[in-house]
Amino acid sequence: MPTLEHEVLIELVRHRPSLVATLLAERGVTVPVFSNARLESCDTPDVTPTEYRTDSVVMLSHDEPVQAVVLEVQREYDARKKWSWPVYLATLRARVKIPCVLLVFCPDQAEARKCAQPIHMGHPGWTLHPIVLGPVDIPKITDIARAIAEPELTALSAIVHGAGEEGLKVLQVFHDSQEHLRHEQRSYADLVLALLPESVITKFRENAVAVLDEIKHPWVCGWIDYGKAMGEAEGEAKALLVILEQRQVPVSEETRDRILSCTDKTVLEAWITRAVAAHSTDELFD
After folding, report:
1. Are 236 and 253 members of one domain?
2. pLDDT tens digits, residue range 36-60?
């Protein structure tokens, strides 16, 4: 059964098909000049559809189609793919009659090395070398201009590198880019929050340098939604304490206890709304 970890890149490509071209370029693959990228049918009708169906197919065009990209997401190496991947390329190539390439993404570097093994077809000189992306091939997006220009790649970068050595910097840039994105692109924050370990999210909350300007900020909403999904008011309470901390509003032990012991989500959300402009905790409770 597909998991969120498996589906996230497929979802990002659905929003921006040209992301596959960016990923190929990151891997050092020359991509033909194109002006349009669109999703193509994932079925391979020349064979059994239930067995041979790609994760995603993107067609790159420049007045006319110039290249098709088969995208596969592999959480772990599957030896059966050495039989099905060549089928994807051959049947797609026969259907669209243009060059086709195979791009495989593995969130685990060790599994990526396994997936990159050459597939010897048996015919002399015919060997398929899968183009495989592991975590090391996904760029660490730490430039705000690039984050705004390439929100899908930035979300993938946050997911892949958020828990690493430069994780806080990557997450901070992802965070800062949100206010500049279209509404539908801000939903990528939900994917990032869902896939990062809770410990990483907590660490980011504690170290984030940005001042939160309004309750509608996607990350605050994400924290609150996460708490609601868990059936707890704890998410709202912790988000409130983080906002007060980042705004350098003094919080006494008595006030901290009052916030953490509150179980009324409506009250907590009202306090959060006031916290983004409050200069003292007294202003929360007035």
Report:
1. yes
2. 999 987 665 554 444 567 889 999 9
